[in-house]
Amino acid sequence: MAPPGVEPPRRMLLNAFSMNCVSHLQQGLWGRDDTRQREYASLEPWLDLARLLERGRFDALFLADVTGVYDVYRDGPETAIRHAMQVPANDPMLLVPALATVTEHLGLAFTSSVYQAHPFTFARQLSTLDHLTDGRVAWNVVASYLPNSAANLGFDALPAHDDRYDRADEYLDVCYQLWEGSWEDGAVLADRAAGVYADPARVHRIDHHGEHYRVAGPHLCEPSPQRTPLLFQAGSSDRGREFCGRHAECAFVISSLDGVGPLVDDVRTRAARHGRRPHDIRFFQALTPVVGGTEAEAMAKAAELGEQVSVEAGLAHLSGAVGADLGSLDPDRPLDQLRAEGVQGLVKRLVDSAPPGTRTVGDLIRSNATGRFTVGSAEQVADVMERFFHAGIDGFNLVYTTTPGTFVDVIDGVVPILRERGLVQTDYAPGPLRQKLFGHARLPDRHPGAAARR
Amino acid sequence: MAPPGVEPPRRMLLNAFSMNCVSHLQQGLWGRDDTRQREYASLEPWLDLARLLERGRFDALFLADVTGVYDVYRDGPETAIRHAMQVPANDPMLLVPALATVTEHLGLAFTSSVYQAHPFTFARQLSTLDHLTDGRVAWNVVASYLPNSAANLGFDALPAHDDRYDRADEYLDVCYQLWEGSWEDGAVLADRAAGVYADPARVHRIDHHGEHYRVAGPHLCEPSPQRTPLLFQAGSSDRGREFCGRHAECAFVISSLDGVGPLVDDVRTRAARHGRRPHDIRFFQALTPVVGGTEAEAMAKAAELGEQVSVEAGLAHLSGAVGADLGSLDPDRPLDQLRAEGVQGLVKRLVDSAPPGTRTVGDLIRSNATGRFTVGSAEQVADVMERFFHAGIDGFNLVYTTTPGTFVDVIDGVVPILRERGLVQTDYAPGPLRQKLFGHARLPDRHPGAAARR
């Protein structure tokens, strides 16, 4: 275990990936007997999950989010609502304080869009969470991409892609000023004899006057263990990667094994251009493990899950993600027919991506889900993870097919093998989440957020 | 115990009044050995407090809040910061999920200003909390009054008083549409065999286009136990009382015993004018109990607390509350001198309010704190509470001098007496918070929020 202030040796990081909703990424499975997805709105399944993850020495629970419905498919939210495809979706941030009561070390990461909350309010909420969790909170910074999110939050239309990142830059700038610059170290005296709690000379207004935000300050919170929460980001576009290279400490990626190297190198190079060190960023790959006692058992399990995948919900999800209505695609339509018609654009790319033997649109969408499964015995799944690790991935956001089943399978089956191989931690390092991952509790001086310090 | 749907008989209601900060209302006492105020930023004192209150069968923990610093006094926040006078102040909403993990029945009420969060985001957070707490959440609706709050949240200046209430009316209108109108009862089918979670025909956009807000919807949350959380409000101005009569289910007041009757009657009359029943509102009086084994012990305790009250922090608090800088008032200044100078306005009203024997400005500010104490044996404090109850007050927001000491004194000393007199509950009624208080879990049809239903 590395002492505080020393970067710990490279190890494989494990996050559970979930969302405060019925159905997150694998559509159509919420009705199974062996999943607790339908209980999402109550505390118990979340408390149980957090306890399980801490038993498995996971680094964090990572909660995704959206702030609108997927209504691109067939020009309305009907399909999403029918299949509980990320709607209903409760607020993820509000799980964090509850989960802190039953865990000591587990990181608690959640997604929040720069559109949904004013940065003054949000920065205060994050500081409060960082206090309540003893420094275990992480924020996944997103700029909304669903048109309905914009319409819910008072915008006529979603601002253009790059403009959204410009706004996100300013949003982070405001947050850094509040988190890093408003209360100096040593501002809090708590001098009971003198009756002085804090030294006003060391607490500062920020007086931010930007293009999107005006914030006076001072920050209402005294410094929390991490000050700035550990920052996750998942940009994949050029502008998104630039944002990632500048701000992110953990990057969430979805890549093929071959694509990992160039992707990671690109973002690390961008980080260096922003004055950071290439290895100031940890990369997390999405991975959906389907683990069986044997390979054959795992294959049978994957086949059963594949049968239950909802093609319609998958089309609705994909339509929202790519911003194009795939509602004209009949699931029973043979792909050969589409090819013969000479389809173009997104549909052509979809059809071209079909694995050999895929007959219909439905098969294709189903394989779009099951094709992301990593299927095998615990040993085989560990092998895949190790290959990603050696290719440059630091850790994984593990996607469930059933919850907590997927995580139980990993913790009881795969983790012991990864431990034997010396890849994952056997116990938690002390201190806040950033210290557990990087050896230091606060942002390093070379991070752009540190410029807000006095 | 009244069955669901039947209004329970009138009983005395008890809330603990606190704030997620070092020093809430009684300034200067945070350094005492026998208070846990300095631990406000961690979970433990709050979890312990919630368990204590549930043991005492309190109705709710009521958390106050501000979204800015008190910087009217001497034209800056220095005094507030030095004395931890409501700064630092962490977000109160984020305590709710944690407290829900250690309680089953306690109501969890918190303050949120209509300026701090967009109503779409906020309504979702409240629905999430209502789900996680099984319907125990209450919202104290406020329109900010501190100039620094406005400057923190992007406003050039605080809008005029009545405009703030107009904005609050629209804010609530948006929330009602999301909570009451977006998802019909019966929209959620969770039909596993058919693979249908919800019926899209019963989930509606709200398409609100108002003066301050534009919100498309649908609400992202399925209906929670209460739908609309139990609504607290504390308006005392004419416009504030009007708002209270229209929306509030619980009104927080600070009144003399003599003033209770007319105040309560006025708000009930306003409620009736809005089509509600006069008794659709419960009134909570602020009360600061200082309980001793005997009257003499209590007097000695109050005298000791009075000695420790911070006059400077009291002046800063009062300056912010009334919006006028009292910084020119030297605490050592004799009141007679001020009287001889013929002071006017607020200072004159302050001086005129001084109890007989008050010599200096400092004594006056100190008595402004201790004058609010209800001092006596448990029996005597119970007598005062009973007199308020018979005058028309339904319950109390109990202010601490030390925490949890004040609440321990009430629960172990005063509550048993109130129980013997048949005034307070001996056990909780089942169901959500509104059902515990009013006999029904949802807003009654005559509440204006019900108009948003389909």
Second-tier CATH architecture of the largest domain in chain A:
Alpha-Beta Barrel
Q: How many domain units of chain A?
A: 2
What is the CATH C-level name of the largest domain in chain A? Alpha Beta
Detail the poorly predicted runs of chain A: none
Q: What is the average per-residue confidence, as pLDDT of chain A, rounded to a whole number?
A: 94
Taken in chain order, the helices and strands of chain A follow as EHEHHEHEHHEEEEEHEHEHHHHHEHEHH
Assign the CATH superfamily of the largest domain in chain A.
Luciferase-like domain
Choose one word for the global shape of chain A.
globular
- Largest sheet properties of chain A: 8 strands, parallel, barrel
- Structural classification of chain A: alpha/beta
Could you tell me how far the N terminus lies from the C terminus of chain A, measured between alpha carbons in angstroms?
A: 32 Å
Number of helices of chain A: 16
Fill in the CATH topology of the largest domain in chain A. TIM Barrel
